[in-house]
From TrEMBL, chains A, B:
Compartment annotation: Cytoplasm
Catalytic activities: L-glutamate 5-semialdehyde + phosphate + NADP(+) = L-glutamyl 5-phosphate + NADPH + H(+)
Classification via HAMAP family: ProA (MF_00412)
Protein's UniProt name: Gamma-glutamyl phosphate reductase
GO annotation, cellular component aspect: cytoplasm
Biological-process GO terms, alphabetical: L-proline biosynthetic process
Species the sequence originates in: Lentilactobacillus kisonensis DSM 19906 = JCM 15041
Amino acid sequence: MNEKLIQIGKNAKQAAYKLSLLDTITKNQILNQFAEKLVANTDQILAANQKDIDNASDMPAKFTDRLKLTDQRIKDMAAGLQQVAALQDPIGNIDKGWQNDAGLLIEKKRVPLGVIAMIFEARPNVTVDATALTFKSGNAVILRGGKEALNSNLALAAVLRAVLKDNGLDENAIQILHDTSHETANDLMHLNKYVDVLIPRGGAGLIQAVVKNATVPVIETGAGNCHIYVDQFAEEQMAINIIVNAKVQRPSVCNAAEKLLIHRDVAKKMLPAIAKALQDHGVQLRGDDRSREIVPSIKPASDEDWSTEYNDLIMAIKVVDNEQAAIDHINNYSTGHSEVIISNNYQNGQEFLNKIDSACVYVNASTRFTDGFEFGFGAEIGISTQKLHARGPMGLNELTTTKYVIRGNGQTRK
Amino acid sequence: MNEKLIQIGKNAKQAAYKLSLLDTITKNQILNQFAEKLVANTDQILAANQKDIDNASDMPAKFTDRLKLTDQRIKDMAAGLQQVAALQDPIGNIDKGWQNDAGLLIEKKRVPLGVIAMIFEARPNVTVDATALTFKSGNAVILRGGKEALNSNLALAAVLRAVLKDNGLDENAIQILHDTSHETANDLMHLNKYVDVLIPRGGAGLIQAVVKNATVPVIETGAGNCHIYVDQFAEEQMAINIIVNAKVQRPSVCNAAEKLLIHRDVAKKMLPAIAKALQDHGVQLRGDDRSREIVPSIKPASDEDWSTEYNDLIMAIKVVDNEQAAIDHINNYSTGHSEVIISNNYQNGQEFLNKIDSACVYVNASTRFTDGFEFGFGAEIGISTQKLHARGPMGLNELTTTKYVIRGNGQTRK
């Protein structure tokens, strides 16, 4: 194990202890100073970013677009920090409290997790967005971003760390790994003594690599093979509106719909209009034989399609015999993110809500609502597709844990 | 990866789906039948257990005592099943519900985790106790017990599985690994596709091995290097009562106190009486130089003592200069289980509660209260010393997760 990394772990743990004792007013003041100083230091941040852009000249435009910072993007990050400052602080909340049989007063109190590590790709905005949420929730953060964004990440973190220092706080509440090697990332996944949770952010490959390797607790986010099932009691225009919104509005994100299942009794009637609406928005359709008999312009889907998250203007369609077939298909192929039934039948809606094993299950709404902001959390660190600790959109509350605070007057156990 | 184990994982996942749809009345009926049939099959269970006892003739008495089943122990397991049947079912509870800005009705609903795996030592009662809680909370369980208890575990599970079969339910809700090799245990720790959480139960060695190896989500339980700090405002008799209770009542368990810290201003006055009370109960004392100057019968403590969980009638004592020194010592050496301050000073009590980073933090009560039954949960699967998902005593609620159930009327995202 890398000695430098162990030192970073120790530093983070110490900083987390101090952070856990800060009151909300102080944390909010710091967040607002973060915002102010980022804007004030725009020139030096952009200069550092330019180095990264120059080094990435061989990369595709999509990649450099994510990497690139601008005046406006720095202002957006600053606005994000101010928004987080305005959110309610979960720390100190009492989830529940009671008196036990021996007369002890027991409270379950919200406290920070401690040290949060994040591994992410070459998107420098994550440095600031993640720090806003971890800092507000009283956690120290260790950030390991993509190597192509290292200069940008270090420049951003330098501004934030200077604010901490100027306020007499521990700079190590925010640490960037300078060493972006795979070996060090792997060591970070095994830093059990210091890391309370590791949250990978990025594509499916990154997240699966972390889940497969890490021994520190991981929260798995962002895999979204989302389904919409149109049953025989669906209203056609509602179905079209929801499907188009879920597929087309922002196809690259995890809450976009990827698959359409439709009941055989309405496929002949509704599928042509649904397919046309999607195709009019540039969506390429793939499907099973039954869907292709109805709409010949649908290309054949392979077995692999059913488990693929396209993140693109592609949708695969399957005609099903009944609701149970739809449910079985979804529970088998889904990543457990978000699934929708479109139906006006009470019983069918209830069955779908009960039987689908995903983080978010909908009747008659777009998958695109699976989002911390849309849910009203005011922030989002990611969307958990695992079942432990957090499931679905994660806001500030999901970056906390609890401890039991117990007040007695001399009780001993009988 | 072991093909048989993959099949066990698939079977468990399928059984979990069916279990998740059972209503509480049915689950309670089955739990009561489990109890009845265990007692009715006492003879064959004891015969199987006798084989294990015969095979373990070389093992120490402590080991065979844990392994041995008797009429009474089978009745106790049956009573445990009936108690769990009587507990409130957490499944279906709505933790919170609200309407978002777009008019969606969002509910956060309690659902089973799915498949719970347990690795435990040669204690056949765990087979029944764990099954009671996993079944009641709607989860399928895969049990890998110590190889020395295999015949007993299989006999117990056969009775439970027969009850499931007789009721037309899926027997694979309860599966025992026949193969107790380390290789298969290791494969189980990597069965990410089918295991939603792995809970090791046993000694520190077993738990650390699981935490270090597993890639499935783990809940770490039961490591308890618990501290009591007597400050300068403590009432002497209360201190003695609590310390003796916490150390002596049941020294082998994780919520027993292992360390005593005492403020220098009261050490001279209180330590002799505290030490005598402990020694009168057969406790061997170890300590730092300052404690040994006051009570010469205290043996010297080594550095290793401060991080050791004795699980025995041993206690290590340290004199500290102030509360912060006590807090720093505890946060450094503790396993994060349970810590106590004995004090009548308001400010000191508050500081201790705020600054100690453990699952349970007490003022003026015994560490022995950290227990699902004492907390009023009516059951306990273990005491979590990690921060993710569950922290402190784990009852039925901690064996569940949530899903968001969302009802709309055609909403699409703007």
